[in-house]
Amino acid sequence: MADGLTDAAEPLAELEAALGHRFRDRTLLTQALTHSSRKPELRYSNERLEFLGDSILGAAISDYLYRRFPDYSEGDLARVKSVVVSRVVLARAAREMELGKYLLVAKGVANVPPAEPDGAAAVAAHPHRALPPSILADAFEALIAAVYLDAGIAAAYDFILRHMEKQIERTRQEIARHNAKSLLQEWVQREMSSTPVYKVTAETGPDHVKSFEVLNFAASESLLRLCEKSCSCLGGAESYSGFGRGVEIFCVSSTENNM
Fold first, then answer.
1. How many angstroms separate the most distant Cα atoms in the chain?
2. Would strands 211-217 and 239-241 be described as parallel, antiparallel, or unpaired?
3. I want to staple 105 with a disulfide (CB 3.0 to 4.6 A). Which of 6, 73, 109, 253 is the partner?
């Protein structure tokens, strides 16, 4: 976050290597790295680029999800996309490339109160690590626009997927773990035209944090086959924890259990 980044060829080259894109017009890169807190001094910021990058990101993620998951419903696609393009996930992607240390921000922007006793020293040594997620997310979107203006839409899409594909898969798995029952129920109702039946077979733990083991039955066909089908679109596992508090849902064969 040092001043005069436009004149520092080495840091920019280092960042370009992390981004996977070498800019023909580095003024675009510099503008994408400039937070609005420096606008009074430098007369420019990354706000307009962030506006453009937001739209490109949305289109790229929608296109990828549509092609990558042909079995997902519109609701499934929208659910994943809404998380992937959130500030939390974009900031996570920005941190993984250490984008914060290249940003041009005004003094004091990174002065977040330290959460640990020695946090003040850590923030002083590495101020970029204390940048708010919103600043990192906006800079990431600004970079998308900068790549687009520098090399076109194909390069922008490549940049997005290079840094977001892992985030998409992580998000998909997190949603599956935390929404297992509703996704399974939607699948049963859509594919089998019936409503699944749940049976609590075990309870453990104190009342305020109780965990349950739940068996799922469907009358029209073996839930063992259902699990094999439904779990393929929910991450590939055969059980999930995270529905409610401490709940695991196991798909079992209705014929084997005489239900």
1. 75
2. unpaired
3. 109
Query: What is the pLDDT, as a whole number, of residue 162?
Result: 94
Q: What does the pLDDT look like over 87-127, one tens digit per residue? A: 999 999 999 999 998 998 887 666 444 444 444 444 444 44
DSSP 3-state of 77: helix
Q: For tokens 């695991």, name the residue.
A: 248
Continuous H helices in 33-179: 39-42, 47-68, 74-84, 87-96, 119-125, 133-151, 153-178
Active site residues: 54, 141
Alpha carbon distance 167, 97 (integer Å):
13
> Can you spell out the DSSP letters for 134-171?
HHHHHHHHHHHHHHHHHH-HHHHHHHHHHHHHHHHHHH
Alpha carbon of 210 to those of 32, 70, 205, 214: distances in Å? 49, 37, 5, 13
Domains and CATH numbers, the chain: 5-178 (1.10.1520.10), 180-251 (no CATH)
